[in-house]
Design brief:
The complex is a heterodimer of chains A (151) and B (362).
Chain A lengths: L9 H11 L4 H9 L5 E17 L6 E16 L4 E7 L3 H13 L5 H29 L13
Antiparallel strand pairs in A: 1-2, 2-3
Chain B lengths: L8 H16 L9 H7 L1 H11 L1 E2 L1 H10 L4 H12 L4 E4 L9 E6 L26 H4 L19 H7 L27 H9 L3 H12 L7 E17 L4 E17 L12 E8 L3 H14 L16 H7 L2 H10 L5 H27 L1
Antiparallel strand pairs in B: 3-4, 4-5, 5-6
Helix pairs in contact in B: 2-4, 3-4, 3-5, 4-5, 8-10, 9-10
The chains are: A alpha+beta (151), B alpha+beta (362).
């Protein structure tokens, strides 16, 4: 697998985060911070699918599991930076703002974007994940042995 | 054969108008929203996504509403919609080792790293109707406990260390895709798994049950069953690297099957694999049993003639949309066909009658 580890590829990390964001969340964070910059479309938001693959026996040969809906778009800021987005679901407005964040992360605005959008987004999603994991942990079986032979 | 018949347009229009009214039901009862279906009938939504072969909970919920709860009709709607979507690419194979597990159990090992996590299961409920649900929607908050972080290893990895179980060696052969090429025999395992993961749950369950009852018995244990979310990563050509494009909830079942060895394989445990969109446990276990039964040839087992061993039988009858399409078309006008059948029967009866008269005369 052509693995570019996310730690070594911050763009991969933020694009992944934007792809999984809850509906409307990125726009809410973004619009609370700055007004939207002007841009031109390279590719207007478009809804399509991705074929999700898996491996037989988790580690063997790949097979096609089924498709998922995704939305993608690409845009150029007036300053020339190109922003891309590939996000889950059918969400054209979310794809647009995700591509704007991607583009602005390549400008001097990056640290502001990180603080105002990416960090709260990541924190919110981590909280949701942790809450789920904690509920799962509460259903973990603690076995205790009633009687045992040998020892 | 059916022929185009003119007429009936008004009847059809009126039938559809009445359908819409019946779908809505009594107007004194509040209308269902898509979000309500998605959140509160989530296992129906999961089934529609799995068999519709398209992961999108909102679309599946819409399809269920439109289909008045007829899940096969809803699956049909999703399959039809799916064909309208341009496909942007195929993902990297998902890595279920990094699944954020809501549930993870093993029937073969009590104490295993990561533990037995029950998750939101119907198991151990008493299957008594809960009339509280008819009264109000109040629920108490589910308890929490500090969670361990880190990945949860697969059970088969422990058995692998002793060499007691067949390996699933890494392989990067591009898989065939039955949504692009018609399903043809012989079908390799990748194609069989694709067909099974979108197969009808009832059909798959019935076949899996038949193997347990002795029709191609393969002594399956649930080595592991896990449900949770995994990230999906896809290579983006314009970027030159892969990014996560979302995450999906999957149910994975690995069976560990007794195997006494064959001409080509030593005695060891063998494996069946089930992986299905959503929380779809019954389907994933069924898939794993049927997958294992279909592997008889590559494992050098005998074909005992069991239905679950017959790839052609299984794969050509497992798709409920194909099946219902062909089954239900016989209710459409077949007037001309039937006229000729009628003529044929009349002719045969005339001939039989004439023969009887002749025999009586002799």
């Amino acid at each position: 697998m052509k693995e570019t580890v996310s730690e070594n590829n911050p763009r991969k990390a933020w694009m992944g985060l934007l792809a999984k964001a809850p509906e409307g969340r990125v726009a809410a964070l973004f619009d609370a911070e700055i007004s939207r910059p002007a841009f031109t479309w390279l590719r207007a938001p478009e809804i399509g699918s991705a074929m999700v693959r898996a491996r037989a026996g988790a580690t063997g040969a790949p097979f096609n599991l089924g498709e998922m809906t995704i939305t993608r778009c690409a845009l150029t800021l007036e300053t020339g930076e190109v922003g891309h987005s590939y996000i889950q679901g059918r969400r054209k407005a979310d794809a647009e703002v995700a591509a704007l964040v991607d583009a602005l992360m390549q400008t001097p605005m990056a640290s502001r974007m990180r603080e105002a959008v990416l960090e709260p987004l990541e924190a919110g999603m981590a909280t949701m994940k942790a809450a789920r994991a904690a509920k799962a942990a509460a259903t973990k079986v603690d076995f205790f042995t009633m009687t045992r032979g040998e020892d | 054969m059916y022929v185009a018949v003119k007429g009936g347009e008004r009847a059809i229009e009126n039938a559809h108008a009445w359908l819409a009214e019946e779908r809505r039901g009594n107007m004194d009862v509040a209308e269902l929203s898509i979000a309500q279906i998605r959140e509160q009938l989530s296992l129906a939504v999961n089934r529609v996504m799995a068999e519709g072969s398209l992961y999108d909970p909102d679309l599946a919920a819409l399809a269920i509403k439109q289909a008045r709860g007829d899940l096969i009709e809803a699956i049909f709607l999703i399959r039809a919609y799916r064909t309208t979507l341009p496909r942007f690419g195929a993902s990297e194979p998902v890595d279920t080792r990094i699944m954020a597990c809501d549930r993870r159990i093993s029937a073969t090992f009590k104490d295993l790293p990561g533990g037995q996590v029950l998750g939101p299961t119907f198991d151990y409920t008493h299957r008594l109707l809960d009339f509280k649900l008819a009264a109000d929607g109040e629920v108490s908050k589910a308890p929490s406990r500090d969670a361990e972080t880190g990945t949860v290893p697969h059970v088969t990895e422990f058995l692998n260390r002793e060499g007691l179980i067949e390996e699933a060696p890494h392989d990067d052969t591009p898989p065939p895709d039955l949504t692009r090429e018609p399903l043809e025999m012989p079908a390799d395992r990748a194609l069989r798994l694709q067909a099974l993961t979108r197969a009808d749950e009832g059909f798959t369950l019935g076949l899996a049950y038949s193997t347990q009852r002795g029709y191609g018995r393969n002594h399956a244990f649930v080595g592991e069953l896990r449900i949770g979310s995994v990230p999906v990563e896809m290579d983006i050509p314009e970027l030159g690297f892969a990014v996560e494009i979302g995450e999906v909830i999957l149910t994975e079942c690995e069976t560990v099957n007794q195997f006494t060895g064959s001409k080509t394989e030593p005695p060891q445990f063998t494996r069946g694999y089930g992986l299905v969109f959503g929380q779809t446990e019954r389907k994933a276990i069924s898939m794993a049993l049927v997958d294992r039964a279909l592997r008889w040839e590559e494992l050098g087992e005998d074909n005992v003639g069991a239905p679950a061993q017959d790839a052609e039988f299984v794969l050509y009858h497992a798709d409920n949309i194909q099946a219902t399409g062909f089954l239900e078309h016989i209710k459409l006008p077949h007037y001309v066909d039937f006229q000729s059948e009628l003529e044929l029967v009349r002719k045969l009866r005339r001939e039989a009658g004439a023969q009887q008269v002749q025999e009586a005369a002799e």
